[in-house]
Write a structure and sequence with these properties.
Layout lengths: L18 H6 L7 H8 L5 H44 L3 H22 L5 H22 L2 E4 L11 E8 L8 E6 L1 E4 L2 E4 L1 E7 L4
Parallel strand pairs: 2-6
Antiparallel strand pairs: 1-4, 3-6, 4-5
């Protein structure tokens, strides 16, 4: 029994394809540099110029990145220094307003040391002036007094020290303020210490 040889039809099998022809057919998404490497052919002058241009642009981008990184680092250091300076001298304006009050305190103490005749009245007048200066200085800085006298007790602003029976003051209202409270603009710095009224037992 004889067998017939079957000859392949069509083009040559893949292993018999001309490698040069295969190298000239680019794969999808293949760059010029990859085609050169895969084909193992020397690059053309145009391809060399293209690679040089790309290398020059890459160097330019790298230099820009280094400069931008250095500028950002310098900006951060400068901002940190400025923030520290601002913290150190944040109260300079307030202290400048308090210096005259200190001067008046010095003069009042000197006057008290030379007690003569109406020195007590003079001392009281001097202390009142200093008190007004201090109140004006802190008010300009945003400090506000909380006067709770005869106000309804507010736990957000007042601190109840004790309660007392009272027929004159309504229950839950402040009978006496023992210590003023203060707030800086919208922030509570210290609550007012108060005595709160309660209804007397029948």
């Amino acid at each position: 029994m004889s067998t017939k040889e079957t000859k392949p039809t069509g083009g040559p099998p893949p292993e018999e394809m001309d490698p040069l022809t295969a190298a000239e057919t680019p794969e999808p998404g293949e760059t010029a540099a990859e085609r050169i490497r895969n084909a193992e052919l020397p690059p053309t002058p145009q391809q060399i110029e293209e690679l040089k241009a790309r290398a020059a642009k890459a160097d330019e981008h790298w230099d820009r990145l280094l400069r931008a990184t250095a500028d950002l680092d310098n900006f951060r250091k400068r901002a940190a220094r400025e923030r520290q300076e601002a913290i150190r001298f944040a109260n300079a304006s307030l202290l400048e307003k308090l210096i005259p009050a200190l001067d008046n305190f010095d003069m009042a103490l000197a006057a008290a040391g030379n007690a003569e005749g109406n020195s007590v009245e003079s001392l009281k007048t001097g202390i009142a002036m200093i008190h007004n200066q201090l109140k004006s200085a802190v008010a300009e800085a945003g400090l506000e007094e909380i006067d709770a006298t005869h106000q309804r007790f507010d736990p957000n602003l007042h601190e109840a020290v004790s309660q007392e029976d009272s027929a004159e003051v309504p229950e839950g209202h402040v009978i006496r303020q023992l210590r003023k409270g203060y707030r800086l603009r919208d922030r509570l710095i210290r609550p007012a210490s108060v005595v709160v009224a309660r209804k007397p037992a029948a």
